[in-house]
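Posting this for the archive.
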Amino acid sequence: MTTTRITTVRWRPFRLPMRHRFEAASGMLEDRAGVLVQFVDSEGRTATGEASPMPSLGAGTVADVLALLEQHGAALADPASAEALGDGPGAMALRCALDVASLDLDAQAASRPLAALLSEAHAPWVAVNAVIGGGPAHEVARFGQEALAGGYSVVKMKVGVESLDSDLRRVAALRDACPEATVRLDANGAWDEDTANRAIEALYPLRIELLEQPTPAADVEMLARVREHASLRVAADEPLYDPALRDQVIERRAADFLVLKPMLLGGLRPAMALARRGAEMGINAFVTTTFDSSVGTAASLHVAAALPSDAAHGLATSEHLAADVTVQTLLPRAGRMALPASAGLGVTPDEAALAAVATAGWSEAKV
């Protein structure tokens, strides 16, 4: 809970173009739109969070976020008001932004990194994976080699966009090009049970680290059956953003890993709470972004640093963006991402960079 007195809530929408279209079974990304939300306190500190919903996942739009901000305005300085937003369109992304801004403000006031408010035993850096979308086998092989040359040891590739035979050719090309890499795959729920089982059997010789969400999100029992007989580890992603399905995943132990996306879970503290619930059932966790700006990426980084897991995290997504809201984009080095040196979130929007990608001016509400 924020311990300083907030005097102003302000927000500004933006749109970031992708360097190239990014293809996955859940849809095609050509840009990322969001809203920066800031708290200003009585000591003059400014804290920032990001609300970038994913329309392709039914999480609402920027228009939904802006409507909520206009409706609730200054009341959002009170954490109880954030809970009152519910879970309708745009709400979880806005709740995430408010949670991050609140934590950022408290961490700045305490002169500590935000991760320290989530866990005293936080790490100074985390391992991250490179991510490859759809594309023909020769492109996948080239992207994989470029990732290894850039210092990554873990490469994640999207599958489920085309036929299973096509996916297997692409995975084989990646493995041939990167024989020493750790390879994980993400099907985004594209396969039925039979296809998932056939895919896992065919993938066994290719030494796959884990497979994210092989089957549709709505059928947790199907995911549990696939996981029970799988020769590789299975991660749950999309079901975690529905409270009832999330409970089923944990109670049924339907996955070996939980994929934590703070933007879809409503913040950093909800993500940490879910990770703890999973750990009690022997389920590990790692964190991924939703192709956020450096503000959202930094927020996810602090969660990753607070987790006890040594699994690579999906935070190296800013390099797929052609612009940012900061002067210097938060990027990994040699397959690692370090916590920013300054207190709080450690990332501050730049007015000129933001102005170049903003879709409207600042709005504000006095508390």
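The chain has a mean pLDDT of 94. The first helix runs from residue 62 to 72.
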